[in-house]
Amino acid sequence: MSGTGSIIEAGVPSARSRALAVLRVRSRALAFGLLPAALAVVLVAARATGRLAGEPWPAVTLVVCAVAALVLLVGGTFAAVVLRASPAVTPTVPLSEAAAPDLYRLVRDLADRMDVPAPSAIALTPDCDSWLEDRTHGAHRRSGIAAGPESEPGAAPVLVIGSPFLWWMRVAELRAVLAPVVAGTGPSAHPDIADARGFVRGLDAAVDVGSRRGLGWIAPPARLLLRLCRTDAAEMERGVARAASERAQDVDYGLRMVAQEQVGLAYAGWDRLLTRVALPAWRMGRWPARLDAGVVSALTELSRRDRLAEGFTSRLGERPACDLLEQPGAVDEATSLLAARLFHGGPAETGPAWSPVDWAAYPEEVVDRKWRTEAARLHAALDALDALDPLAVPAGPSPGSPGAPGSTAAAPARASTPVAGATAAGSTAAGSTTVAATGSPAPPTVDGFTGPTLERVLGYLTDPAGQGAAGEALAGRLSADLAREERAAGTAAGAGKARGADAVPLFPLQPPRSGRDLLADHVTAMVCCAAVDSAGAAPGLDWLDGPVLLVGGDRRSDLAARVLRLVEDGDPEPLRDWLADLGVRPEKPVRVV
């Protein structure tokens, strides 16, 4: 604590001056609330001493006393809400000293070297960021959010570390990155700054309480006070950051630039891993249990592809920061589950419809299942459109394709029979020979199998005129079907809240996909299923791009443009050429479950 004062003096005196400006807003609000009471006291005293005898002073004194009592009641209620409202606490994975003694030792060494208080605890967040978080509010103790030494009055803030840093960074790099963060415990211990931060957090929490608990009148004055102190509070935090940065200047200065480059690289790889790899698994009811280990593979691949990142892989021979943990695997699993909750809204615990998946099983259990589920949904949408317009006939097939003059394969009619009724999960059972109510024949049998075919999709979307009406209708149907499934899943998650579910993500990764994007994804899935079933292809995992199609062990990246040509222009020829080159038979039934 000896360095607390020096940090403010040598760092940025404006941090304390801005904190005092914030506290003056609080003092003025208090004075405004006490003014009617002070006036009432003056009037009562004057009446008691005979200085204000006669009319109308008795009535005036009574009215002022009533107004003062009302203002005190309202002001006292508002102050109680501000003082007792629980400030938001970031969901994290707590990391006890027994689980990471070496990491605690590193952090304490940093604090001693910079002459600042050591953080009271360490926690991990599934994000590429690190910060200090105060958890000493009494509401946190009452609710059980914080129950350790970090919740004691006057305790130092909690150090929150981004879990990807521990797996990607080396020990020396992590130390350099954490130095300015840990240095922030000094300014945090200053009474004026701590008091000002507590006041701002209380106002922010009061706004939330007023919105959620029917105390609508609480929110407007809280928002007004926040606006009055917003500029000073922001400048106070900038001053604190400058003071902490100055204090950390002499700690591992040579590694600071290298470590900051790794922060940017980690953020890029982590974002790709979440949106391209983890998100498809989450949508399938599976959560990768080793996201932090996966980020190493993703960033290594990014380093290999990006010429600007050349030489970064040589760092992998140094000691990784995750060696500072006693059980890295268990910690990785906990942060991976938390990432699924924060970014996707998954349940807090595993279950039959929410289970972990290892990276080795990802292609078979996520990629293949994703493709077949989307293929089933695509054909269910076609069945629904056929039922609405049974007389609609698709454009004629191109020369040389199945169903064209001279071809031995029968062309599928757009009003073909549904493969099977859609299940609750949106999938379709293959092998059904049910005849639709329109009287159209069952799907053709090829090589002894009956089921949905890629040719049906190609025939439906083929549009020589390029108007795209069929594609628009199919895209709209897919969007509606997917929205219905998500609503059903949300209802189920809401019913499971008592068992610890999270129905809505706090930080959603992606905006809703457009109908065209959904259609392209589903057609791609159908093509991949056909390639796997009839051409010996296999599902695969790319660490940066997610699900991929492997042919002969090599990734095929030339499919997307051909699918877009079909979906957007109604031109199937590029895709047919691709299928013929690969040996895929579009008329052959595809397994969708």
What does this 3D model show about the protein?
- The protein is of the alpha+beta class.
- The protein contains 19 helices and eleven strands.
- The strands form four sheets. It has a four-stranded mixed β-sheet. Strands 9-10-11 form a three-stranded antiparallel β-sheet. It has a two-stranded parallel sheet with strand order 5-6.
- Helix 4 (101-114) crosses helix 7 (171-183).
- It is globular.
- Residues 1-11, 393-442 and 497-501 have low confidence and may be disordered.
Our Rg estimate from Cα atoms comes to: 32 Å
Q: Helix segment count? A: 19
Helix content: 55-70%
Work out the strand percent.
5-15%
What are the secondary-structure elements, in order, as H or E? HHHEHEEHEHHHHHHEHHEHEEHHHEEEHH
Strand order of the largest sheet: 1-2-4-3
Structural class: alpha+beta
Secondary structure tally: strands: 11
Short description:
56% of the residues lie in helices and 7% in strands. The protein has helices at residues 4-10, 13-48, 57-84, 101-114, 138-143, 163-168, 171-183, 185-188, 191-212, 219-247, 253-283, 291-305, 328-344, 362-388, 454-461, 469-495, 515-535, 560-569, 573-582, and strands at residues 93-95, 121-125, 130-133, 158-162, 286-288, 355-357, 445-446, 449-450, 538-542, 546-551, 554-555. α3 crosses α9 (191-212) and α16 crosses α17 (515-535).
Provide tags for this entry.
single chain; 593 residues; alpha+beta; 4-stranded mixed beta sheet; 3-stranded antiparallel beta sheet; 19 helices; 56% helix; globular; disordered N terminus
